[in-house]
Amino acid sequence: MKKSHGAKTLAFPLPAYLIGTYDPSGRPNIMTAAWAGIVCSEPPCLGVAIRAGRLTHESILKYQAFTVNYPKASLATAVDYAGLVSGRDQDKFAKANLTAIEGSLVKAPYVAECPVVAECRLYKTLELGTHTLFVGEILDIKADEGLESSEGGLDIVKIDPIVFASGGHYYKVGADLGKAFSIGLSLRK
User: Fold this and answer.
1) Which of 32, 43, 65, 135 is most exposed by smallest CB count within 10 Å?
2) Within 13 A of 2's CA, how many CA atoms are on the CB side?
3) By the 8 A CB rule, do 108 and 64 touch?
4) Domain locations along the chain
5) What is the pLDDT along the chain (189 residues), one digit of tens a residue?
6) Closest Cα to residue 118, out of 20, 27, 30, 22?
7) Which of these, 60, 56, 11, 14, lies nearest to 37 by C-alpha position?
8) What is the DSSP letter of 81?
């Protein structure tokens, strides 16, 4: 028997991304976002839901671009901080001791200390109520050298990403449960 918990914004796990933009005056800014993920494969797109009134919301609309930075676990304090204060009031890059690098394909900064970064050009917006879903076309994924897996992709263990759990805790990635598109084949017989 399952107990009802009502209509909630509950999903496990969620990413803990840093969204990079330039503020209206051109100063680099970041915000923490958990309501985000891949939304299309062709064209490759990533969506992030941001509340109207946030500086990042305004900045994405102005520059039509943003970066999605995948922080490693050692950046948990900086990630949490970036979600606690507004870029209108503080220089989050300076305060968190992070380095802003101008994107090579979009007018948005990325975080040098994050092992993986997606440069996104604004593709579509969808007003959902309290939040706007910004869909960014991924123009490039940049990754630190040495993060490749033996299969040729990027190795999640080497990236050591932060994940967020509804309820308010950050976690690291756990044990490998098996190869996708493979471990379920035995049930197809």
Assistant:
1) 43
2) 3
3) no
4) 14-188
5) 999 989 988 888 999 999 999 999 999 999 999 999 999 999 999 999 999 999 999 999 999 999 999 999 999 999 999 999 999 999 999 999 999 999 999 999 999 999 999 999 999 999 999 999 999 999 999 999 999 998 889 999 999 999 999 788 999 998 888 988 899 998 987
6) 20
7) 14
8) H
Check residue 181 and give left, alpha or beta (phi > 0: left; psi -120 to 50: alpha).
left
Q: What's the whole-model pTM score? A: 0.95
- Cα 31 → chain centroid: 9
Residue 21 is encoded by which pair of tokens?
A: 């933009």
- Alpha carbon distance 116, 15 (integer Å): 13
